[in-house]
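hey so i finally got around to running the thing on that chain from the lab meeting. sorry it took forever, my laptop kept dying and i had to restart like 3 times. anyway pasting the input first so we r on the same page abt which one it is
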Amino acid sequence: MYLFSFFIFIFLSNNFALSLQQQNPSNEVMAMLGFKQNSVAADPQGFLNDWRLESITPCSWRGVSCSLHGKVTVLNFTDAGLIGRLHMDDLMVLENLKHLHLSGNLFSGNLFLNKSSHPSCIIETLDLSFNNLSEPISETFFSSCSHLVSLNLSHNSVPGDIPAVLVSDFSKSLKSLDLSHNNLSDDFPMLEFKNCSNLVAINLSNNSLYGTRILRSLTNCQLLENLDVSLNKLEGTIPASLGNLRNLKHLNLAQNTVSGNIPPEMGSTCGTLTALDLSVISYLPSLQILQVPFNNISGFIPVSLTNCTELQVLDLSSNGFDGEIPSGLCSNSSLRRLLLADNFLSGTIPADIGNCKRLETINFARNHLSGPIPSEVWKLPNVHDFVMWGNNFSGEIPKDICSGTRNLEKLALNNNGFSGNILASITNCANLLWLSLSFNRLTGTIPAGLHNLQKLSILQLSYNSFSGNIQTADLGSFKNLIWLDSGSNQFTGHIPSNLAAQKRFDPVFSLSSKGGYMFLRDKGRSDCRLRNSLIYSEGISEAKLQESFESNSCSLITIYGWPNHLIKTSNGTILFMDLSFNHLSGTIPDSIGAMSNLHILDLSHNRLTGNIPDTFQGLKEVCLLNLSYNSLQGRLPGSLGLITFLTDLDVSNNNLTGPIPSTGQLTTFPASRYENNLELCGIPLPPCDHHPETVPISSDVNGKNHSMLRNVDWVWVIAMVGYIFGAAIGVCVGNVMLRGKEEWLLEKKLMIISTFKRTKNS
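ok and heres what got predicted. didnt touch it at all, straight out
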């Protein structure tokens, strides 16, 4: 009887407790509703809609995970779109909270805690990346939450110094620290890393950290595997003490102003290094990635790199390396990317580079390399990008190119000394996107089957000695051509009328490689060997390239970044067409005027006849139009003045007649752009009044002249002369102002074209 009564008592007690629980929300419910009220000003996605006071427990709420005992352990609001100012005190009530993921919102604040201490805080993971934090970091949170394992405040706008609590007073539990992509501006060498015995990864990249030497106290972090301080303002040499980091695998010092030689002490002590960005190496047998972009590292390429049998990426681009390329870099078959561009390397390419059978990218551009390229290198089976421009290479393009592979996409051999013909074997390169052979000594005709390369987007053949009828190349049959540069050769025949007739396009070509592309626009009429050309710029320093221009014939060249993706339309894709300095004849096809995407058209120095097509008013994007040194006749179409971005027009040295139309900016160009024509007249040339009694009254859009013949006395003549003189001064002043406006329009357009969008993963 007593036993039965006891069970009845237990049952009733449990039901009573359950009833109380149903009527009163838990402390965790109240705490999280407090966080919602105090920290979330807007919830446009409705992420927290199910957070209600009537809930017994928050464990069923969106973004909440609980333990088996019904306690909140994880809050995950990643990419929830929440907007507000963080009040962390509300979450400190959650005594079992270990992981707090707030990435991808618009929270502001500074992690300040009102209470001086929260001894119950056991948070291990705090991710506030990609938010709107724009205040200096408060130390109060980190003083209370001493169990942190991972802290990520990257991609915010946090200013000021790095708090001492995050470096000198590290929690021994901390393994990962990411403060990258902020506005931190601390004196990096003055930071004292002390309690970092468990720290594995530090990312401080994309800030404004400064100092004249790399931090030496990092040697206290003996478990450190990843260190990234790239894109800061660090200076000085690389300390040999970094060699004491026995577990270091990834080191990124790129895009600072580090200088000097590679310390030899780095060699025998970094045996575990697998990724190195900048340059600290001599002998690292486990090295897999070595990247050295855009610094001032000098000296020879370390011969001991040949001992790195697991090396997959070697990037020493845009530094001050000199001497020869060491033999033995391909003693293993692991190398996939070999980037040595923009240095001062000399000598020949070692034949054993051909042993790198897995090599996908080889870039030796802009060095002082010479001699023929070894046949073993030409035959690399897996190469996509073969970039050798800007050297002193000689010899011929092999007749069996692409015979063993069809992977080749970019072949950049411009600005060298290659000779011989383009053989038909080039048509075996079925995936070729970019063929650049400009500024060489090549001869012969264009292979008849070249147009079968349907993925070809950039064709650069200028400044060679190619000959033959240009129509036989069937250039209009390309489906994806955006860049046609065949100037300064000996081509004959008529301009193909089907260049604008392309109708089918495959979006196969995107200017989206790591290096990007540069367009070198000639604002004068210089003899620069890179004028008005597009170059493959991976590993090329724009600053160094511009500096080299200042001391030679390229001083008037301006460098623009070309867009990452070129949009194709159904009305012709070509953006650039240069057929100048050839022996082309016949008339200009009317269809050229339908190429609405064309930015630059140069047909100068040929033997073209006939009129300038009225259809040229359809060249809505053109900014440079050069038709000089031909035998064109007739009147200058006034419709040319309706082209908004036209800032450089040259029709000089033809047989044009009649007045220069007054439409648009046509009267603002220098007289040299119109001179040496048969009977062309009007501003900026001398007036069209060839007869003393003839006074030009007006000119319409098509350049048709209307005049009146009057016999007047001297008083009226003097009055009219004074009127015309005053009007001419006004026109000249207006022309100068308009000319400046048009130049500004072009600069603005090219600046917009060269702007790249910053993405979340940047």
